[in-house]
Amino acid sequence: MSSIYTLNLTALLALNAALFYTRQKAHPTPPTSTPSPKPNPKPQNASPLQSLLTSPLTPFLTVYTLTMTSDWLQGPYLYPLYTSTHLLSPSSLSPLFTTGFLSGAISGSFIGSLADTYGRKKACLAFCAIYALSCLLTTISPSLPVLFLGRVLGGLGTSLLFTVFESFLVSDFKNRGLEGRLGETFGVMSTLNSMVAIASGIGGEWLVAGTGTNKAPFWLAAGVLMVAGGVMKMTWKENYALNGGPDKKSDEEAKEEKSLFKTLSDPKILALGLSTTVFEGSMYLFVFFWAPALQSSSSSSSSSSSSSASGTSLPYGVIFAAFMASTLASSLIFGKITERLPFGSLLLSLLGVSSLCFFLAASNTSSSQFTFWVFCLFEACVGMYFPTMGFLKGKLIDDGVRSQVYGFLRIPLNVFVVVALLVTGRMESDKAFVGVFRVCSGLLLLAAGGFWGLVVRKSGVDVQVE
């Protein structure tokens, strides 16, 4: 069983190597020349990755890479840690995961405002401490109160991770006059994210094999977060909403609240919010259900009892690395696609293809390889979704309420996942994922229709972001 997934990963890595070679051939290393007098010049022949890694944005990209490494290290092992190490019953898993998302939903209503007012760098530093503590609590003991506290902190940390870091970056870009490079930068971030995810998946597999415990990736993740916090503290400059700070809150409060309401009621933002809720909600449900889905299909396609859904037959790290190799491949062609396809049209396409992926995964549960490759296609959509959504939000949302809006957009997302987990938690069938995937498929089609009706049909596929 392990050998076929290793072969799949090798094929995907070979594809990525070919794409890297193609990009380097298209963007050869530029010859040494006289520096341009313009600030922050972009080398004419440099690839986006070369350009950004040698820019003043390197400190941000370094911290971003470290924080995402910490997230990816532990991700594939949360499910086996609960089931194989802590020996929790299946009935305990849904409440634990639900607690994490509920924590994220509640915190989304206030962390954005705090970050905008008291500083986004401070919020990012808080993330490092909170998420590291969550990692440690998750491994300390199988005691449910401790594990639930770990999930509460994990939900808060996730909300910070996907709110304040992006908000800090967009604000920093605007202060530097680099708004025109947002799309390119989010594409590079997606590439870096996929690369560290692959390395984390393979490294996590070796780490677990070497230590003999599923706790090891969580310990390493906590250490990486401490390093990220140190780099951030030494190299980042603070930024606030409206170029202000905590002392300016009272003067701008009424204006900000009005702007927040106006932003959230904008049809374009509503369409983005619906797309975010459904796509990212489906992605989180996928994270929860991909292992049971592959276990079920492996059991159905094999006559050997060793392939039963025991939770130990699948090479989680290798499979996870293969998924991330799929996101990397899509991020490598992201720039070429956006040269020909507007961001609005691209988001619409991603919603449609993702709907098809969930429909196919729900319709065929007897072939593990078919299911695996459908999941890889969905992960390829994920690789393009985040830079696409990051660009659109960066263009359409005012900086004065950026973190607040990002936080509020995550509330319905977390509520959606909580409701789904509560419903599926009551299902005794080991194929509960089939119903979940079918619902996700339908909702993704609904989100695509809403985005087309509220944005593309009314405003054009370019979403009038220029």
Automatic annotation (TrEMBL):
Main subcellular localization, coarse class? membrane
One Pfam family from the record: MFS_5
| UniProt KW keywords | Cell membrane, Ion transport, Membrane, Signal, Transmembrane, Transmembrane helix, Transport
Q: Where is the signal peptide?
A: 1-28
The Major facilitator superfamily (MFS) profile domain covers 51-459
> Does Membrane show up as a keyword for this record?
yes
User: Where does the record place the region Disordered?
Assistant: 25-48
The membrane-spanning stretches of this chain are: 92-111, 123-142, 148-170, 182-204, 216-236, 269-293, 313-334, 346-364, 370-392, 404-423, 435-456
Q: How does it sit in the membrane?
A: Multi-pass membrane protein
Q: InterPro entries of this UniProt entry?
A: MFS_dom, MFS_trans_sf, MOT2/MFSD5
Question: What is the stated purpose of this protein?
Answer: Mediates high-affinity intracellular uptake of the rare oligo-element molybdenum.
Q: Which PANTHER family match?
A: MOLYBDATE-ANION TRANSPORTER, SAM (S-ADENOSYL METHIONINE) TRANSPORTER
Q: What is this protein called?
A: Molybdate-anion transporter
